[in-house]
Amino acid sequence: AFQGKAQISTASLSEDELKSLQVDRNRLMNDIHHTCQWGTGKRWGSQTTETGMSRLALSDTDKQARDWFVQTTKSLGCSVTVDAMGNTFAIRPGRHEAPPTCAGSHLDTQPTGGRYDGILGIHAGIEMLKVLQDHNLETEYPVGVVNWTNEEGARFPISMVASGVWAEEISLERAHNLGEVGGGTATMKSELERIGYLGSVPASHRSMPIAAHFELHIEQGPILEAEKQKIGVVQGVQAYKWFTIDVAGRDAHTGTTPFSARADAMLTAARLIAHSHRVAAKHSALASTGVLTLSPGSVNTIPGNVRFSLDIRSPVDATVEAVEAQLRKDFAAIASGGNADDPSFPQTSKHKLAVDWTTDTTSAAVNFHPDCIAAVRAAAGSVLGDEGLVRDMVSGAGHDSVYASRRCPTSMIFVPCRNGVSHNPEEHTSPEDCAIGAEVLMHSVLRYDQLRAQRERR
Amino acid sequence: AFQGKAQISTASLSEDELKSLQVDRNRLMNDIHHTCQWGTGKRWGSQTTETGMSRLALSDTDKQARDWFVQTTKSLGCSVTVDAMGNTFAIRPGRHEAPPTCAGSHLDTQPTGGRYDGILGIHAGIEMLKVLQDHNLETEYPVGVVNWTNEEGARFPISMVASGVWAEEISLERAHNLGEVGGGTATMKSELERIGYLGSVPASHRSMPIAAHFELHIEQGPILEAEKQKIGVVQGVQAYKWFTIDVAGRDAHTGTTPFSARADAMLTAARLIAHSHRVAAKHSALASTGVLTLSPGSVNTIPGNVRFSLDIRSPVDATVEAVEAQLRKDFAAIASGGNADDPSFPQTSKHKLAVDWTTDTTSAAVNFHPDCIAAVRAAAGSVLGDEGLVRDMVSGAGHDSVYASRRCPTSMIFVPCRNGVSHNPEEHTSPEDCAIGAEVLMHSVLRYDQLRAQRERR
Ligand SMILES: NC(=O)NCCC(=O)O
Ligand SMILES: NC(=O)NCCC(=O)O
Question: Where is each Peptidase M20 dimerisation domain found (chains A, B) (predicted)?
Answer without folding.
Answer: 240-335
